[in-house]
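Same chain as my last thread, 358 residues:
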Amino acid sequence: MTTTAYLLERLMPHLILAPIALPLVTAGLMLLLREERQRTKVAMNIASTLLGLVVAVLLLVQAKQPGGQASMGVYLPGNWPAPFGIVLAIDRLSAMMLVLTSTVALASVLFAVARWHRAGVHFHPLFQFQLMGLAGAFLTADLFNLFVFFEIMLAASYGLLLHGSGRPRVSAGLHYIAINLAASSLFLIGVSMLYGITGTLNMADLAQSMAGVAPADRGLLHTAAAILALAFLIKAAVWPLNFWLVPAYSAATAPVGALFALMTKVGVYSVLRLWTLLFGAEAGESALFGSHWLVGGGMVTLVFGAVGMLASQRLGHLAGYAAIRRPWALVTAGSRPGCCTTCSAPPWPSARCSCSAT
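reply #2:
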């Protein structure tokens, strides 16, 4: 047995909790320090982010092991059985998103050390809270905790966007806050409606409940899914709901803008994860619900982002349009009927999903 395999065997499944607990503890400790202790906070931020990257790589290695339970990790923080308790789950897709997040975060914090972290107060704790929200959104396996982690991520992003002050940042920040508060309200409404119809918010339990929804409630189910999708699509910056992104992202400081680019990925990740899970071929009358809208919206957003990039005369706007365009190539590809979110298995019956390969 290799050293890596031995460590994974001893640490799993508790290692799944580390991407959430590590930034939470780090941010809490940094809040106890005075603002003058910048060097200590810088060292803590870099060390925590680097350790988070190591943990994410270890989780990806574990998730890439073929077959069995090794490719899908589940953790019950309160030790309550699903679907009654909080559930964290990791597979190859969520592990890859964690690695991406940690890599970009490490580059951002190293760049911020040059001068940007001194432009305002509490940069480092907010940075870690942002990482906590991002990691939780990728790891959670129920909708209510997805909402909680979204709010943690957004609350930290409000402070980070205003970091450095200035009229352009304040103006863009107010628009950003208003739009995301509206999206959060839609998120909560959609989640409440789904719970009222199915009696559960656990994602796996919801997937099993789709086919058994009464015909009289089917229209209400689709309405709830549409409201929930609208909240995600606002956060994912689909056209025409992306008017807020370019001004906000271009007004942010450079390291914050890099971190914000990951937030668009969270919206796209949520759309792909929930659509393929809840509205797959086993969803009965709801199978493939909304697929044409996802494909159409993704293609229009791709064109909009490309035109915006070509027309941009400022580097910040160019980066903002690029952040809009890139993830929607994944949505357009992932919206194919039968496509597996994690391994992109083709939709035809003879193709075999490598996620379930033994």
